[in-house]
Amino acid sequence: MFTTAFLVQALLASAAFAIPTSKERAAARRARRSDATRQSKPVDRIVSPTSEISNASYVEFSSNWAGAVLVASTATYKSVTGTFTVPTPKSTGGSSEQCATAWVGIDGDTCDTAILQTGVDFCVTGSSVSYDGWYEFYPAASFDFSGISFSAGDSVTVTATVISTSEGTLTIENNSKGTTVSKTVSSSAKLCETNAEWIVEDFEECEGSSCSLVPFANFGTIEFTGASATTSSGTVTPAGSTLIEIEQSNKVLTTVSQSGSTVTVVYA
After folding, report:
1. pLDDT digits (tens, 9 = 90+) for 161-184
2. Under 8 Å between Cβ of 91 and 74
3. Sheet hosting strand 37-39, strand order edge to edge
């Protein structure tokens, strides 16, 4: 006959065995992505925001972007970079996976035909979290980087560098783990080089031509430090940038601020 202690140990062991590891969760997510493509999109502005925030004339609103965007009238920006701490995303309720992503990029605002961008996704299902580093030259879908991993609290630097209007290099450095990945990509779409941005996004997943925003996770706070963009004249900070907040279902979900070389995005 089994003792009570033995049965308790067996139950604990079976429960532990049933909980997927972070690698298993990441593998399952990649498998799901083989059927549904992941894509960041140009900013989707809201022309008439809700009355509760309509007096905030210093900021604009969209359904998918929150952050800061530098805007120029002619080809200006050659690279953009920023460093942030990987958050622990939290579920806002329900059993489905919820995600958000933090990235830097060139174009996608006033120039919406192409975006050169790279960043990190953070997703949560219940209390289980997963992270993916990715790169994208929109309008193509994104691709996950291999050879790099992330944990909550890691310091990560993301950089997008223009080589030409149809080519660029995308780099992610995990400063905490000492690993770096980089990819040079090209596209038939042409960059305008008129936008440089630091963004937290509610990205889309697509099955065929049908795309929809993923349920948006509570990402806490993303603070882009050392935020800068290079031009032919030198380096600039996000000072003077347009601030954008996410509004969904008549509710503002983020608070954005900028000071010096720091852009802060908070889940409201």
Report:
1. 999 999 999 999 999 999 999 999
2. no
3. 37-39, 204-207, 210-213
d(CA 146, CA 132): 9
Q: If DSSP codes are grouped into helix, strand and coil, which group holds residue 94?
A: coil
Residues across the chain: 268
Give the pTM: 0.86
Give the active site residues. Answer: 201
Distance CA 133, CA 225 (A): 18
SS3 65: strand
Looking only at the bridges linking them, the beta strands covering 59-62 and 242-248 are: parallel
Q: Are 62 and 45 in contact (CB under 8 A)?
A: yes
Q: Tell me the three state secondary structure of residue 52.
A: helix
Taking only the tens place, the pLDDT of each residue in 248-260 is 999 999 999 999 9
Prior bond to 139 cis, omega within 30?
yes
Question: Residue 10 CB: number of other CB atoms within 10 A?
Answer: 11
